[in-house]
Amino acid sequence: MLNRHVHPAEARLHSGETTHVKLVSWIGLAAAAAFLAACGRHSDTPPPAPVAAVEKPGPVAWNAASGGFDLAGRPLKAVKLWTFDGSTDGFTGGRSKVAPAPGQGLSLALVDPSLRSPTGLNVPGGQFSLVIVRITRTGVGAGWDGALYYATAAHPESASFLAKPEGGAQPGLNETVTLVYDMSRLAAGGGDWLASNIDQLRFDIEDKPGGQFVIHQIAIAENPNAAPPPKAEAAAEPPAASATAAKPPPAPKP
User: CA 72 to CA 86: how far, in whole Å?
Assistant: First the structure.
């Protein structure tokens, strides 16, 4: 039945208000749904991929197939090789954070610049005169050093016995380099490495804190291009007595 007490114009007014309220509500719901959908799409967006490191070429390179270093394509004979497969392999960094890197390598966040190998290496320096370090810079730092010190039974590590990498190579951000130390040509110490048994290595990567690196491999190897050590000269033999040497004069006759 019709409500006779409602005026037709009033009924039309109420109907219009209801339609307007419903329209506003639907607009609000649609906007909220669009916002939530946008939020969902944003949360599903993967983070940017890390920048892949670029490897700087050099005469010494890591050969993943053979699991060793090559010099100009020829495999090097290593007496020590550390690859840090899920382990620090006994290397310590003082106050620096040293840990296995994801995948392979040694992750290093520098506080103290020194990274030390295990002791007791017992490496004959005269036969193995190359030290090789393959390293990637993963964080900005300052004050690159790259010095290599070593200890023997005769002396501890000191500034009197150190080497610098060939060419002074240092990695830029997200760059991998292979540092090569020719220990037959020390920056300080003369021929001490060649004449010694090496007990421990120490790398001073940077002289200021803050740098971040991944060290992939370290090796102590033979240098096939090294000059052979000089041979000891034979002592000169005394000249043979001459068969024609002058005879003593005869004794005078009485």
Answer: 29
Q: Which class is domain 58-221? A: mainly beta
Question: What is the per-residue pLDDT for 47?
Answer: 43
Q: Where are the domains of the chain?
A: 58-221
| Confidence label for 233 from pLDDT (cuts 50, 70 and 90) | very low
Nearest to 182 by CA among 200, 169, 171: 169
Cα 39 from Cα 32, distance rounded (Å): 11
133: number of CA atoms within 13 Å, CB side?
29
Query: 72 is written with which tokens?
Result: 């100009």
The answer, as to whether pTM is greater than 0.85, is no
φ, ψ for residue 17, nearest 5 deg: -65, -40
Tell me if 116 sits within 8 A of 91, measured CB to CB: yes
Q: Which amino acid is at 124?
A: P
Tokens of 33: 């749904």
